[in-house]
Design goal:
heterodimer; A: mainly alpha; 15 helices; globular; disordered C terminus; B: 668 residues; alpha+beta; Double Stranded RNA Binding Domain; 5 domains; seven-stranded antiparallel sheet; 16 helices; 25 strands; 42% helix; disordered N terminus; binds protoporphyrin IX containing FE
């Protein structure tokens, strides 16, 4: 064999060459979608909003390339949302009269479906794990995917509904506790689904979905007792493009931290009971998921807090005011920075880190809802 | 760990400074500081910061107030001890960078070609091949594969063996540098913008905090800051049509005056509302007069849309009344003369009033054009309704005691009837209790006021009581004058009791003067008599006002009667000898501006950018290394591949296996 033959045998492939036909179709579809939105609404979007849309488009393409199931989800969500928007037409009336809207895809109905499916999926995951039933596990996954789909449809349709209630009211549905709880459930589920596929195990599902189900329980209580699902106009402080990026970035953080905590619970059970450890992935894997999730959460939480500071500089006159919500974000951030230091530089592993990550959930939870319930400050949304 | 090994070596070299550096740069200190800052921050969120000192005294009592004050708990984030912890955090992080950065930068660049076979052989991820190819051919063969995996490689012939070293993701190490430098940069930038210098000058007595509520022009120079002050964040409230060339900085229990190098005139302030009544936008039209400009700068600011001018940022922060002019009508509530009196006033101005209970000071405190209130009517969902304009005032007596009121200008519909609402409270912390004054057939307050006056008109009461008593006595007793006089007397007494203290007054009177067994029957009789008497007076009032009562009383007039009695019954606890009605107004608003100068902002933002870049580099750039040891052994060429991943061990393992499989195919 000559050197040239050897060299020729191995063809270098650049990143672009690794992309298949479906990857390109995906990219084109996303671009076409954005193009459509731009052609319809470009005129009323300011330059920041256009930049955000461009960023979202690129992020969606890239995420779809590296995590293929996202595409199928997007197809379903888009199709169902467009269907619902079409059924609505130009008035809200159809929400009461149209069968599809009333029982399936009006935002509140879709969110009810999401809630029911998440709760069902939680139970199914546990059954699948305890009985070591693979098929049941697949059903649980399918339920989680469906719940996520319905949640996203619920949010997107709500976006449209807000304009139908009154063109003046229209806004992205991340502006109050009701809306962000749905967002939290959906994002946590998505992060979980990613790890489920990557680590090829469904045993963590029940644990993670437990925290989602709790969020759903709160959501339902909040919606029924406080009439929270009603679409309200935005207070002036929230009328800013910053909200579109600050809030979702925050919830990637919250979702990832919640997931890490529940994996921490799984780790601890695994540690104490051979019954559980026989049914769950190794502690190493759980530990790895926990670390990855905290790292993901930390990165996005950093971004979110910084975006919050930039927003505050524009709305309140200073990038940092030690407002309770702000301060608690810092506390959460410091907590996980300490966790990461211990993990990475001290090589701490095992029970202390699992406990720490569980405690982290409570700190996060306080920053998320506790501040709104118990402390007063400049953050004007979502008082209980 | 490699890092701590480095640290020990350094400290043994120079014991003195090494110990200090060792302490400052230690992980334990860093973690302790992170957690301490976290806990200290919690204190500041639980205890509401920077409130008026008066509130803290009320909340904690004088003793604990002093203790907490000494600990700086009312402004935790600029308390000396908090800043000290932050300083240590910055020092500790800087030390950490100082000690780790050189090593890391070196690591980044180095290919580490001087490795020993035995150490490579000890790696967890390793693989060995024996082939008949020449080392040169192997090198040519593996190079493109390894490069394809993203590695940069170097090779060197070292004596009897060829060493090939590959690395990727070196910027992961830069990530460490970026994040930690970012922390230092952000903290320093923040410090630059904080009010630390101010605190220091207040502490040393260089400036005096003003605690009196006096006009800005009278604030002494000791409480004024130089216009050159590089960083501050203050606020000022400017009425429409007025201007300001300074802002107030709140500090501890007072404030300081910060002059500006320009004047801000407020042309107009606007609130727009959604159709539900909630506010939709707050906007101010500003004019900046600056001696350095040829013509004034005009700009409109709104929430989320500040104006940046010469490094000063001007924000729409709040709004309030700017001294609206109010035309008021004063209705006496006590006494037989019910003639109203008109006066003119303005919000934030005080008026002296002579009333039946002595001199009172009327302090107008606020005017609000829109009042969106939740309304819960029976059987209906809660809705929001605009109650229209209202104004607030205090009535202060000569002893300095004040009662607070909030009166609505136009009638508000409740359960289908219209009322003038007047809220009253005796303590600032209480909610308002409302007086519902019914609106008469002409839509005014006159009939109610007239009726109320009649109930204080003793002559009239006596006359009507006499007539009523005469009529109500049966014919047979008509000539018993003492009976009629007694009845008249008790009627008069009941009416005056009612006018002074309401139905409660009558009940109390009965409880105080009648044996318990007879109370309820006596009360029944009293109320019946009182009701009759009041109805007769009301009928006379209606007749006098030209209402035809021959067909009986209309439903509307009868409902008015009941509502009027309820209102008069409540006047006893209303606490004012007069009712202040708002006749007309000229609305003058003021806009609340916040003005900030923050030179550290750029620095902080650079820190933010570094932080984000650093965090993503650290988490999402895998830093991996590979080595190939190629030598000749037993007549064959031996290749040992070993490698490690810095962070993501599991991911690296997968990559290693894939690489090994591809090389397997190529080497054999
Ligand atoms: C305000 C204080 C600090 C903050 C917020 C902070 C933040 C961080 C963050 C976010 C990471 C990333 C986690 C990772 O991927 O490694 C990190 C890593 C690290 N930090 Fe800190 N840090 C601080 C102070 C310190 C100090 C004082 C030291 C020195 C003892 C230190 C040493 C390290 C080391 C060695 C790493 C791991 C770097 C690596 O191996 O790649 N940090 N820090």
């Amino acid at each position: 064999m000559t050197q040239n033959e050897i060299l020729g045998e191995y063809r270098r492939r650049s990143f672009w060459q690794t992309l298949g036909m479906f990857d390109w179709i995906w990219a084109l579809a996303v671009l076409a979608g954005s193009g459509f939105v731009f052609s319809r609404y470009g005129a009323v979007m300011d330059s920041y909003e256009l930049a955000i849309m461009a960023g979202v488009t690129l992020a969606l393409i890239a995420t779809g390339w590296s995590w293929k199931p996202l595409r199928m989800l997007s197809v379903w969500v888009t199709a169902l949302t467009l269907f619902a928007i079409w059924r609505y037409g130009n008035t809200l009336v159809a929400g009461e009269t149209d069968f599809f809207l009333k029982f399936l895809f009006a935002s509140q109905s879709a969110i009810m479906w999401m809630s029911a499916l998440f709760v069902a999926a939680t139970l199914t995951y546990f059954v699948a794990m305890l009985a070591r039933a693979e098929f049941t596990g697949k059903v649980a996954s399918a339920m989680t995917w469906s719940a996520t789909t319905m949640g996203l449809v619920g949010l997107l349709v709500r976006w449209r509904e807000s304009y139908l209630v009154n063109p003046d009211f229209g806004h992205i549905p991340v502006s109050n506790l009701y809306e962000v709880f749905v967002l939290f459930a959906v994002i946590t589920a998505l992060i979980y689904l990613y790890y489920e596929r990557r680590y090829r195990t469904r045993a963590m599902g029940g644990f993670v979905l437990l925290v989602i189900s709790s969020a759903v329980a709160f959501l339902l209580w909040y919606a029924f007792t406080r009439n929270a699902a009603e679409i309200q106009p935005l207070v002036p402080a929230l009328q800013s493009y910053w909200m579109k990026i600050h809030v979702p970035a925050n919830f990637i953080g919250y979702g990832a931290f919640a997931l890490a905590a529940m994996v921490g619970v799984a780790w601890l059970l695994n540690d104490r009971s051979s019954f559980m450890s026989a049914r769950m992935p190794s502690q190493d894997i759980l530990e790895d998921v926990m670390y990855k999730s905290i790292a993901l959460g930390f990165a996005f939480f950093t971004v979110a807090t910084i975006l919050g500071a930039l927003w505050a500089a524009e709305a309140w006159g200073g990038y940092w005011s030690w407002d309770p919500k702000e301060t608690w974000a810092l506390i959460v951030w410091l907590n996980y920075a300490a966790w990461l230091h211990m993990h990475l530089t001290r090589g701490w592993r095992g029970a202390p880190m699992a406990w720490w990550s569980v405690i982290g959930l409570f700190v996060t939870l306080f920053a998320f809802v506790g501040v709104n319930m118990f402390l007063s400050g400049l953050h004007s949304y979502g008082e209980l | 760990m490699a890092l701590s090994a480095t640290a020990t070596r350094q400290s043994s070299r120079n014991p003195g400074s090494g110990l200090l550096l060792g302490f400052l740069g230690s992980m334990n200190l860093a973690i302790t500081l992170l957690v301490t800052v976290g806990i200290a921050s919690i204190v500041g969120t639980v205890l509401k910061q920077n409130e008026a000192y008066q509130n803290y005294i009320i909340k904690f009592g004088p003793f604990w107030f002093e203790v907490f004050n000494a600990l700086g708990l009312y402004d935790v984030y600029s308390a000396a001890w908090f800043l000290l912890i932050l300083t240590f955090l910055v020092l500790s992080t800087s030390t950490c960078i100082y000690r780790n950065a050189p090593q890391m930068l070196h690591d980044m660049r180095s290919y580490r070609l001087n490795v020993r076979f035995s150490s490579l052989n000890a790696f967890h991820n390793r693989h060995e091949w024996r082939t008949n190819s020449t080392p040169a051919a192997l090198l040519a063969s593996l190079t493109p594969v390894v490069q394809d995996f993203g590695y940069r490689i170097r090779s060197e012939q070292q004596g009897d063996h060829l060493i090939v070293s590959g690395k990727k993701g070196a910027i992961n190490r830069l990530g460490y540098l970026f994040t930690h430098v970012a922390i230092v940069v952000i903290c320093l930038g923040g410090l630059l913008d904080g009010n630390l210098p101010l605190k220091w000058r207040a502490f040393t007595g260089d400036i005096a905090i003003e605690t009196r509520d006096i006009p800005a022009s009278e604030v002494p120079p000791a409480s004024r800051l130089p216009v050159t002050n590089p960083s501050f964040r203050g606020s000022v409230s400017v009425p429409e049509g007025s201007a300001s060339d300074m802002v107030f900085l709140t500090l501890r229990d007072g404030y300081l005056v910060q002059p500006l190098p320009f004047t801000i005139r407020v042309k107009d302030f606007r609130i727009e509302h959604y159709e539900t009544g909630q506010p939709k936008s707050f906007e101010s039209d500003l004019v900046i007069d600056d001696a350095e400009r040829n013509e004034p700068l005009e700009a409109t600011i709104a929430v989320n849309h500040p104006l940046l001018y010469k490094g000063y940022a001007i924000y729409q922060a709040s709004f309030g009344d700017g001294g609206s002019e109010l035309e008021l009508r004063l209705w006496p509530l006590l006494g037989a003369d019910g003639t109203p009196r008109d006066i003119a006033g303005a919000v934030f101005k005080d008026l002296e009033l002579d009333t039946s209970v002595g001199k009172l000071q009327l302090e107008l405190t606020n005017f609000r054009l829109f009042n969106i209130n939740p309304v819960q009517e029976e059987g209906k969902e809660k809705t929001l309704r605009n109650f229209g304009p209202n104004f607030s005032f205090k009535l202060r007596n000569e002893r300095g005691e004040a009662v607070e009121y909030e009166n609505y200008m136009s009638p508000v519909t409740m359960d289908g009837r219209d009322f003038y609402l007047s809220g009253v409270r005796y303590e600032p912390a209480e909610p308002f209790h409302y007086l519902y004054i019914p609106v008469d057939a002409q839509g005014g307050i006159e009939r109610f006021m007239q009726f109320n006056t009649w109930l204080h008109d003793l002559e009239r009461i006596q006359r009507i009581a006499g007539e009523t008593a005469a009529q109500s006595l049966p014919e047979s007793k008509a000539d018993a004058p003492e009976l009629a006089a007694g009845l008249t007397q008790s009627m008069v007494r009941l009416v005056t009791l009612f006018a002074a203290r309401g139905f409660d007054g009558v009940v109390e009177e009965v409880e105080a003067s009648v044996p318990e067994a007879e109370q309820s029957s006596v009360l029944d009789a009293y109320l019946k008599v009182l009701q009759t008497m009041l109805a007769v007076m009301y009928a006379e009032l209606l007749t006098e006002n030209g209402v035809d009562l021959t067909q009986g009383i209309s439903m509307q007039d009868s409902v008015f009667f009941d509502d009027a009695l309820t209102a008069i019954g409540a006047l006893g606890s209303y606490g004012a000898p007069l009712y202040v009605q708002l006749d007309s107004f000229r609305h003058i608003q003021s806009t609340g501006l916040q003005i900030a100068r923050a030179p550290g902002k750029t620095m902080v933002y650079i820190g933010f950018a570094l932080l984000i870049a650093g965090v993503f580099c650290m988490f999402y750039v895998a830093a991996n290394r590979l080595w190939f040891w190629i030598d000749t052994k037993d007549g064959q060429t031996r290749v040992l591949l070993a490698g490690s991943g810095l962070r993501h061990q599991r991911d690296f393992e997968k990559e290693f296996v894939r690489l090994q499989q591809i090389l397997d195919a190529r080497f054999s």
